Amino acid sequence: MNLLPLPAFADNYIWMLHDARQAIVVDPGDPAPVQKALHDLGLRLQAILVTHHHNDHVGGVDVLREATGATVYGPAREKVPEPLVRLAAGDKVDVAGLHFTVLDVPGHTAGHIAYYGADMGGTPVLFCGDTLFSGGCGRLFEGTPAQMLDSLDQLAALPGNTRVCCAHEYTLSNLKFARAVEPGNQDLVHYLGWCEAQRAQGLPTLPSNIAQERSINPFLRVREAEVREAAQRFDLQADQHDAVAVLAALRQWKNEFR
Ligand code: ZN
Ligand code: FE
Question: Full-prediction pTM beyond 0.85?
């Protein structure tokens, strides 16, 4: 299976998996890059997987369904263009010879889901939409810090070699914030250097992987002393021994960070 990030808009990726015949895509906000890839590679689109209802993730669904007859899968509890196979935690998606398990990961939106494929030729894959980014997490538009912490803890518990396919190229700005939180994290310094080199060549920093994120992403590290202490310096009211309060403080700090 080939895994491709198709760039869309300013900083979105529409992820495509294909076997040179059949393809699936995740979160097609724009139909054009998908139609070009299908045409250039001679692929038939079998399915569209949607993680959440924001327009930069669903804007191309109707056009692609109409053009290809692909089946659309999406979150049970969100408004996504119908007809749709509605999914919630624990549901299975079997399509184009691929098998995914659905995870509920609320926080960015109330009904956000993620797709985890354990059986991908040895290296699992995660499509996590706008929940987990490399070095960061999504803004809390509809959910609470407690929900986001649960969601991120669930993702952090996946196997370390899981490829993390995020829906945005936000890595460099996330890592600049992460460095302010954890200036003593050497893994972060090395990873930032690698990501800067990738971007300087116009290449994606993604997919990341879960082991990498556990070592550099402050939102997965809210129980680490350096992260807890930094969060408490930002918000003196936050109890640094309460992981939810640490996550809430980090998210607020990131919102204000330039
Ligand atoms: Zn979003
Ligand atoms: Fe988005």
Answer: yes
